[in-house]
Amino acid sequence: MAEGEPSYAVQRRSQNGQVWDSVKKTAFVLGTGLFIFAAFRNSVTWHCQQFWGASGDFWQAQWGKVYDVFEGNEMLLFCLGTMLIPSLSFWLFNAFLMFSDLTGKPQFITKYRIQLGKNEPVDADKLKHAAITVFCNQIFLSLPMVLLMYPVMQWRGNPCGPELPTFHWVLLELSVFVLVEEILFYYSHRLVHHPALYKHIHKKHHEWTAPVGVVSLYAHPLEHIFSNMLPSMVGPMLMGSHVATIMLWFCLALITTTISHCGYHLPFLPSPEFHDFHHLKFNQCYGVLGVLDHLHGTDLVFKQTKAFERHILLMNLTPLSQSIPENTKKSK
């Protein structure tokens, strides 16, 4: 600190620096994600057009066929896109993970376990209880919320219209969805960590200090509504999105949160180290992207750990628990 400089000026400059760092981190995360998504979409579109010989816009042609089948029953089409298909993607992915959790096979997957010695194998009864709870949350909470979402989306526009939104508009919408989810999830998540609420609501989710994929939706009903569902629903309602965009977003959100909870740091997939550390330590890493954690300083302990060093996209087949091992030697 410069001589004679007021301490509040230093604090203000530090806060401004944190805000700017958060903005840069958000831009990097969103930019990278959108670039990868765009490249993936263009590649898949090209191969589909070559293989099936579809003329014109492949995705619009496929949507036209689906729309013709469901025309006159748009609410059913809306539920199919916002509930059935995302749920199927969630359970298919988690079925594979649960098999690995229960059997310890294939070793190609289980060698990437984050918390070594935990869930090897997972308790079958505990996993069954979690899976049943998640299924009930989806049927008795998620489905009614999607049904209530439909008239809101009709009021905002035509969610099941015959024309798909442009690809660039979808990218813009996804960016908005991510930012809205980060804000709503971070603050609702911190709220349920308040002592007055934690033991009654959020403690259920934290029964798993070493989480597995299906635990991503294992929560008290109130938490499922306000912390799992609403943060992902508000963005599409604000934007008046098409059901196809909502379907894509819900599938991405469910797969991403499953990866964050799966307990394995797998090659070429987003790093789950951030949220896994939250389950281990409870009072760190509340958000999704980590932007608000950086801004509020709720990742300071995390940044001093090996988990932070391992919080990267794994681009080879060597488990990070081997390439960046915990330092077990005590310093003299």
UniProtKB/TrEMBL annotation:
Subcellular location: Membrane
Domain Fatty acid hydroxylase: from-to ranges: 176-298
Keyword check for Lipoprotein: no
Superkingdom, natural source: Eukaryota
Ranges annotated as spanning the membrane: 75-99, 130-152, 167-187
Key words of the record: Membrane, Transmembrane, Transmembrane helix
Cellular component annotations (GO), alphabetically ordered: membrane
GO BP annotations listed: lipid biosynthetic process
Stored InterPro entries: Fatty_acid_hydroxylase (IPR006694), Sterol_Desaturase_Related (IPR050307)
MF-aspect GO terms: iron ion binding; oxidoreductase activity
UniProt KW Membrane keyword: yes
Protein name: Fatty acid hydroxylase domain-containing protein
Organism: Hymenochirus boettgeri (Congo dwarf clawed frog)
